[in-house]
Design goal:
- The chain is α/β, with parallel strands linked by helices and 375 residues long.
- It contains 6 helices and 18 strands.
- The protein has an 8-stranded mixed beta sheet, covered by helices on one side. The chain has a 6-stranded mixed beta sheet with strand order 7-6-5-16-17-18. Strands 1-2 form a two-stranded antiparallel sheet.
- Helix 1 links the parallel strand 5 and strand 6 (92-95).
- Helix 5 crosses helix 6 (244-257).
- It starts with a strand and ends with a strand.
- 45% of the residues are buried.
- The model is unreliable at 1-5 (pLDDT under 50).
């Protein structure tokens, strides 16, 4: 359970004695598309991606008071487009939620999203985080949950938007707050987990999720199934810990569908953690937390002598913390390549020091991980 040298848990934990904040749940906005809420990547990108696909992933980039960390993360991702190997260039960025802090207000989108990503040269897809979804009760102009997020990411067609100002970025056309991004090499099933600290997913979305898992499984010989959800199911950090509601929701959906994804990506927790869950049938499911994309506060992992935490729970059994970075900001670069043996999904996690003056600091490769998807 505990690494005796570092005194850090090597399993996820639950935080005890946490207040019940389910009252923060917000109603979902009306979808802009039609069921089953699928977006074809080739309706946005025309380049051939049937052999290899490269993309960035990052979460929790917004920063209301100290934006320099998110600007550095964005700049380092943008720098990876400068290469003499075009096949290594990312084709898009997938954002794991919390684009803006603290209440998803429209007036924050330029400062916290459009301006920092002005030079990022590829499309950006997203799921909404709890801060994107929350509503400021003291706002000068009343608004509903996710009004600005829908305007930016869920338009009915791509067009100019006033919130973007001089950035040149147009609206995205995601058909709903939860949706599936279909690409030649992977289906990204994108869930929405609302505002409360540990997330809430209602029955209607669960039914949709089960059907999307089944539908994606029909193409599993040719595609990976990637699950994206903002609230991290597993974590060993001091601020959140693992989410019992998300674990129970996901496992129930997996069992009902008879299908599990190949990998799960989340944000919410402001650090990097890579877990692996072993199932009785011999399969392993990686869970990746990548929520250190720019928010000024990072969340360290708890030590073995910390109180108000437990790893003694059946929901946490057979889940191992493989590696983590809790003192630097960072982002993921993910590749999916079709090879003779099958699909290979590989990721690299790059880190940026959390220091006041990092003008001379260089990005560093912290973690490299590969997953063979042999069908």
């Amino acid at each position: 359970m505990i690494n005796k040298n570092a005194q850090i848990y090597t399993t996820p934990v639950f935080k005890l004695n946490t207040p019940d904040d389910r009252f923060k749940f917000q109603p979902l906005p009306t979808p802009t598309g039609t069921p089953p809420y699928r977006l074809q990547l080739d309706s946005i990108l025309t380049m051939p991606l049937n052999k290899k696909m490269v993309f960035h992933m990052v979460g929790d980039t917004g920063s209301a008071k100290q934006p320099h960390f998110q600007k550095k993360v964005s700049a380092e991702m943008t720098s990876q487009f400068v290469t003499d190997r075009p096949e290594e260039q990312p084709q898009f960025l997938f954002h794991l939620g919390d684009v803006v802090y603290h209440f998803g207000e429209a007036e924050e989108y330029y400062r916290q999203f459009f301006q920092p990503y002005k030079d990022y040269p590829a499309p950006i897809f997203a799921i909404a985080g709890n801060h994107d979804s929350d509503v400021n009760p003291h706002a000068a102009h009343p608004y509903k949950s996710l009004d600005a997020f829908v305007e930016v990411f869920c338009d009915s067609k791509s067009r100019d938007i006033k919130l973007a100002q001089d950035s040149g970025r147009k609206t995205n056309i995601q058909p709903n707050i939860y949706y599936t991004l279909q690409t030649p090499l992977a289906d990204f099933i994108c869930l929405y987990s609302n505002v409360p600290k540990f997330g809430i997913v209602e029955e209607e979305q669960k039914e949709w999720f089960v059907e999307e898992l089944k539908a994606s499984a029909l193409n599993r010989s040719e595609k990976a199934i990637i699950l994206c959800i903002h609230h991290a199911p597993f974590s060993a950090d001091f601020n959140h810990g693992s989410s019992r509601p998300m674990i129970e929701f996901l496992e129930a959906a997996y069992n009902e569908a008879g299908v599990r994804p190949d990998i799960v990506f989340s944000g919410h927790v402001h650090n990097y953690q890579r877990f692996s869950k072993q199932y009785d049938d011999g399969t392993t499911l990686p869970y990746i937390v990548a929520g250190a994309g720019g928010y000024v506060t990072l969340f360290p992992l708890i030590s073995g002598n910390a109180t108000d935490y437990t790893a003694d729970d059946a929901l946490l059994e057979n889940v191992h913390l493989d590696t983590y970075c809790d003192d630097k900001h960072g982002f993921l670069k993910v590749e999916i390549e079709k090879k003779t043996e099958g699909l290979e999904l590989s990721l690299e996690y790059y880190t940026i020091p959390h220091v006041a003056d990092f003008a001379k600091e260089k990005v560093s490769l912290f973690d490299r991980f590969s997953l063979w998807l042999k069908r």
